[in-house]
Design goal:
about 325 residues, alpha+beta, three-stranded antiparallel β-sheet, about 60% helix, about 20% strand
């Protein structure tokens, strides 16, 4: 009996010693497991936070839909929190969108025309809720492309095939205005409609080329005629100015002659008036006695002369008959 108890006690001591020997490795294993559990928990928490956050990138706008109900706020670029369950973020491209394709339409004459058309458009962020309710996020085929094709074909019937090349700008403008009216009510803006290539039948292209050549010839003829007309007007104007200048010269010459004659007449009148006044003065100042005195004075001077002469006098005035 004693031997059996001793044997049991010895086994227990041996087992205890083994556990003590294994204490350190067990502790390291437990610590390693604990760290892994903590790391997994941390990653799970981060995943939870990331799933609860959403980012709206530049050029985007979005709506938050929670349990089928649209939140009223429009989400602009930035980070937002959201619920994990029952919440969906619907993103829309708010940048200018380009759509290009080849379309066929008929002209006013019924000629089929093929053209590569490019459409630039964008949506209005404030209309996102209305767009989502009516068209979901697949609005391009429903509202944009279908209306573009319809508008293009309607407008093509208003233009002749021969005039599509020369009237391209008017065609693009009219199509843009009509499409803007249709899709603008849904919250879209048409930025540009452009016809890149217009494929026409060969005979139509020949007709257009002939028309353009005829227009160029006509325009050149009009320009030549306009140049000739302006040259003729210039020549006529120069001739008119020359004639007017000649008339002015003649008029100035005539005015000068008339003025000269007037001055000469005035001079003669003044001179005659002076002569008349002088004669009047002489007539009033010369008397008979003065005449006799002058006659005697003259006779005296003649007598003093050394020349042989015959003087006949009546006592008033001498008359020389012969003077040698």
């Amino acid at each position: 009996m004693k031997q059996a108890v001793k044997s049991i006690f010895t086994k227990k001591i041996e087992n205890g010693n083994r556990c003590n020997l294994l204490n350190n490795p067990c502790n390291h294993f437990q610590i390693k497991i604990t760290k892994q559990i903590m790391l997994i928990s941390l990653m799970a928490g981060m995943m939870f936070l990331l799933q609860n956050c959403t980012v709206i990138r530049p050029g985007q706008a979005a709506l938050k839909v929670r349990y089928g109900k649209i939140k009223p706020d429009i989400l602009t670029p930035g980070a937002y929190a959201r619920g994990i369950f029952g919440t969906r973020i619907v993103r829309f491209d708010a940048r200018t969108i380009e759509y290009s394709t080849k379309l066929n339409f008929h002209s006013k004459e019924g000629i089929e025309v093929t053209s590569e058309i490019t459409l630039l458009y964008h949506l209005i962020p404030d209309s996102l809720k209305s767009i989502y309710l009516k068209f979901d996020s697949y609005y391009e085929n429903t509202i944009i492309i279908n209306n573009l094709i319809s508008t293009l074909r309607q407008e093509g019937l208003n233009h002749q095939a021969t005039a599509l090349i020369t009237e391209r700008s008017a065609f693009e403008k009219a199509t843009k205005e009509k499409l803007s009216t249709i899709i603008g009510q849904y919250g879209f803006v048409v930025d540009l409609i452009m016809l890149k290539d217009i494929d026409l039948p060969a005979d139509v292209v020949s007709t257009i080329q002939a028309k353009l050549n005829a227009e160029q010839v006509s325009k050149k003829t009009e320009i030549d005629l306009e140049i000739k007309r302006k040259q003729l007007d210039y020549d006529l104007e120069q001739q008119t100015k020359q004639a007017e200048l000649e008339i002015i010269k003649q008029r100035l010459t005539l005015d000068f002659v008339i003025e000269k004659q007037k001055k000469e007449t005035e001079r003669l009148l003044i001179e005659s008036e002076g002569i008349k006044k002088s004669q009047d003065i002489l007539n009033t100042s010369i008397t008979d006695k003065l005449i006799k005195f002058k006659a005697l004075d003259i006779t005296k001077e003649l007598v003093k002369s050394s020349n042989a002469k015959i003087i006949i006098t009546d006592g008033k005035s001498p008359v020389i008959v012969n003077d040698k």
